[in-house]
Amino acid sequence: MNPQRRSFKLRGRLEMLALFGGGALLVIAGIAVALQFVKPAPPRQISMATGHPEGAYYQYAKRYQAILARNGIELELIETQGSVDNLALMLQPERDVDLALIQGGVASKAQSAELSGLGSLFYEPVWLLTRTGSRPIPLNQLQGARIGIGPEDSGTRFLVQRILAANGIDTGNADLVVEGTETSGQRLANGDLDLMFVVGSPDSPLLLKLVADQQIELQNLGRADAYARRYDWLTILKLPEGTLDLKRNVPAEDLQMIAATANLVARENFHPALVALVLSAAAEVHSGQHLLSGADSFPTSANSDFPLNSDAARFYKSGPPLLQRWLPFWVANWIDRIKIMLVPLLALLLPLSKMLPPAYRWRIRRRILHWYKDLKSIDLELDAAQLDARRLHKLHAALNMIERDVAQVDVPLGYSDQLYQLRLHIAFLQNKLERLTQAPEGTA
Length: 444
Fold this sequence. Notes:
Layout: H1 3-35, E1 45-49, H2 56-69, E2 74-78, H3 83-90, E3 99-103, H4 109-113, E4 116-131, E5 146-148, H5 155-166, E6 175-177, H6 181-190, E7 195-199, H7 205-212, E8 216-219, H8 224-230, E9 235-239, E10 255-266, H9 272-286, H10 310-318, H11 322-326, H12 329-338, H13 342-369, H14 371-384, H15 389-407, H16 416-438
Parallel strand pairs: 1-2, 1-3, 5-6, 5-7
Antiparallel strand pairs: 3-10, 4-7, 4-8, 4-10, 9-10
Helix pairs in contact: 1-13, 2-9, 14-15, 14-16, 15-16
């Protein structure tokens, strides 16, 4: 390729670069502005305050952990004493805790307002356990009794102390023993306690271990309706005879129980994209048939002590976001995050799609049409007056130069017809000039 043709091709490419590069810069600028409004990606690691490793909270949290891991989220489990401990951790901004399981009734209204509720997950009945063969004693007659009320900072201790206090029983007239559930169970079986309370799911390994002990039996709490009327966060449940163990017939009779609900709680800054994912994991664990609840009873937005998270409310109303139903979580989240960029991009691309094609056609045609200015000038001069041989020679040289330059012009195939028309017009003027050059002097 000769230098002149290379120069023409380079000039053409620079023209196209200026045309389309300007459009590309506008699009890039639009993307840069939109990126300022794109939500940050959700974290890949979150933490949850649970409870004792053998308690229901911890066991359920392990199942959430496995489900979330399938979606690339690592859930760190933090062992605690129970609900009161969990609530305290959630209310300490310096502690790196994102989620917690908290028993209903534990948080005050002021404390609840600082956190975000994701719903309730399962019932936590109050279990009253005594030594096998013991005579049932009404709670308002437990003066002087040795009573296991659960570990320090546990939901069991919090709830049982309120129930006992309502019955006039406190540390002034009874021995309220604060210790772990397993230790209390051993002391009850040995006769060192008269009774003990456990608040928790019937799926709790510790509870199942206690009711399996032949030295321990379940008792009816009594007056369940009265407790439910006094405390709106309590629900009345019926545990039919033999539900826990058909072979040993545990319990030995139908029990009317009161139960709190376990709340799933998040910090207010918990990433919105993770709400539906966490609730989907909870639904996978809790939505089936259970001893104390029917299928699809949990998780639910009802019976929660905490203000319902807006993303959780959408989950309970419509289920998981549409994209998360059909796509892997991280793909769905990426699409959801960048959709905010579509508005400015469309606002730029729509007018550009209408402007660039005509501008492109004009730039291509301009490579051809601008030669016609010189051709018209030569044609008018040939028609205007008698020209001497010297002037005719200069015009001939000018036409030859135009012909050489046009031969170097590069246009897309679709515009070749216009380029060949230009060459025909150049040839026409060359022929006209040739006739004038050969004509006798004065005939021009």
